[in-house]
Amino acid sequence: MFTVTSQDSKQSRKPRVVIIGGGFGGLTLAKKLKNAPVDVLLLDKHNYHTFQPLLYQVAIGSIEADSIGFPIRRIFTRHDNFTFNLAEVQKIDAITNTITTDIGSVNYDYLVIATGSNTNFFGNKEIEHFAMPMKNIPEALNIRSLIIQNLETALVTGDSREKFALMTFVVVGGGPTGVELSGALAEMRHLILMKDYHGLSKYDMRVYLVEGKDKLLAAMSPEASAKAKEFLTKADVTIYNSAHVESYDGFYLKIDNGKTIKTRNVLWAAGVKGEVPEGIPAEAIAKGNRIYVDEINRVKGYENIFAIGDASLMITPETPNGHPGVAPAAIQQGELLAENLLHLIKGEATKPFKYHDKGTLATIGRNKAVADLGKIHLQGFFAWLLWGAVHIMSLAGFANKGIIFLSWAINYFTKNSDNRLVVRYFNTKTREIDAEAK
Ligand SMILES: Cc1cc2nc3c(=O)[nH]c(=O)nc-3n(C[C@H](O)[C@H](O)[C@H](O)COP(=O)(O)OP(=O)(O)OC[C@H]3O[C@@H](n4cnc5c(N)ncnc54)[C@H](O)[C@@H]3O)c2cc1C
C-alpha cells in the first residue's frame, strides 16, 4: 500500500472514500464531502481539473491553455479530511478492496469511478493514428501546433497539392464540439489568416464538417440544429450530413457519400467512450464502454463501488439511453452521491438520482450561438451572450474567470488573439510532441 499522504499515516478509522478522477463529477463529490466523517482520497493522472467546454478555444489559439485548467490541490487547501495524489489508476481489485496505481496500491472502503470518457475512433486504428482528438489540454495544444505548423508550411511549399491539403480542415462530428470547432476555424479564416500570413489567401483555406446524422446538434431542438447549419453555411463551412468517414491515411479522407478530401488536418469530434479502469467485469459494462449503475450510481453487482458522470450509464424508465455526457449530469451525480454515501454509512435510506436539465448551449462564432432552455429557444446575439456568461461562471478559479473574460473582450474588439504559439512542436510523422524539433 502506498503511504505517500498525511491522511494515510494518521491511521484514521473513518471510512475511506477513494475517488478516481478530478473532473466535474469527482471534484463536486470531493467538495461536498468537506468535513464529513470520512477520509477522502482523490486520485487523478493530471494535477489539474480541465474545463473541457473551452478546449476548442485553446486548440484554435483564442485563449491560453492554463486558463481552462485549475490545480486540484489549490481547490482543497481548506479541506482537512481530503488528500490528493497525482496517480494513474491501473486496476481495481474488488475482492480485496484495493486499487493499483502507477505510484502504488491503496485500499478503499468506498470507491467512486469518475474517470470520464475518452475519444472513440470506433476501432479504426488508421484514423486513430492520423486524426486529432481533443479531450484534454495536451491534445488541444497538439491541434494548435498542427494548425499553425501546417499554415507555416503551406506558405513555403512549392507543391500545390500539398498546399491544398495543408490548408484544408475537416472536422468530424457535428455535435456541439464539432460545430464550435468548425465555426472557430471559419472565423480564423475570415479574421486572422490573411493578417498573419500575407502570402496565403482565405479562399485557399477550406473548412468541412462531416456528420453521420441528418442534422447538426442532433441532441438539441430542430430550431437550434437548423440555425447552427445556417450560421456555418454562411461562414463558408461545407457541411456533409448523413455522411461517415470511411478511412483517412494522413492525406486522403474518404467519406461514404463518395467524396474524397485531400487534407492534412482531420479533427475528430465524432464520439466518446467511457474511460473504465481494468477490473470492472464485462457484464457491468454497457455499449459505449459506460458502467451500468443503479439509481444511486452504484455499480451493478457491487455494494461499495460507484461510478458517476461520463463513465457511468444509469438506465431508468425516464432515461432509457442513460443521461447525456455533459458536465451538469456529472456534477449533479457527484452532489447526490456525497449525500447518499453518508446515508449508506449511517444505515439510512438513500435518494434516487433525478437529472435536472437546465438547457443546452452551443456557439458558432462571434455573436452567434444557439440555446435550448426548456421550451425557450434562443439564437444569435443573446444566445451568444448567455453562452459566454454561463461558461465564465462555470470556470474554476477567480483568476481564470478574469483571464478568460479579458481575453474574450480583447479578442472581440481587436478581432485577433495572441495565443497562436508553437511551444510544443507536433511531429506530423510520429503524431507525437517532438521535444527535439525546432
Ligand atoms: C471538447 C469537449 C467539449 C465539451 N463541451 C461541453 C459543454 O459545452 N457543456 C457540457 O456540459 N459538457 C461538455 N463536454 C462534456 C463534459 O466535459 C463531460 O461530460 C464532463 O467532463 C464529464 O465529467 P466527468 O467528471 O465524468 O469526467 P471528466 O470531467 O472527463 O473527468 C475525468 C477525470 O478522470 C481522470 N482520469 C481518467 N482516467 C484516469 C485514471 N485511470 N487514473 C486517474 N485519473 C483518471 C482524468 O484525468 C479527468 O481529470 C465537453 C467535452 C469535450 C471533450
Provide tags for this entry.
438 residues, alpha/beta, 5-stranded parallel β-sheet, 4-stranded parallel β-sheet, 13 helices, 32% helix, 24% strand, globular, binds flavin-adenine dinucleotide
Helices and strands in order:
Elements: H1 6-9, E1 16-20, H2 24-32, E2 39-44, E3 48-50, H3 55-59, E4 69-71, H4 72-75, E5 82-86, E6 89-93, E7 98-101, E8 104-107, E9 110-113, E10 117-119, H5 125-130, H6 137-156, H7 160-166, E11 168-172, H8 176-191, H9 193-196, E12 206-210, H10 222-234, E13 237-240, E14 245-248, E15 252-255, E16 260-262, E17 265-268, E18 272-274, E19 291-293, E20 305-307, E21 312-314, H11 327-346, E22 360-365, E23 368-373, E24 376-379, H12 381-394, H13 398-414, E25 426-427, E26 432-433
Parallel strand pairs: 1-2, 1-9, 2-5, 9-20, 11-12, 11-17, 12-13, 19-21
Antiparallel strand pairs: 3-4, 6-7, 7-8, 10-18, 14-15, 15-16, 22-23, 23-24, 25-26
Helix pairs in contact: 2-11, 6-7
Residues 20-26, 43-46, 52-53, 55-56, 88-89, 114-116, 134-135, 176-177, 275, 277, 309-311, 325-328, 330 line the site of flavin-adenine dinucleotide.
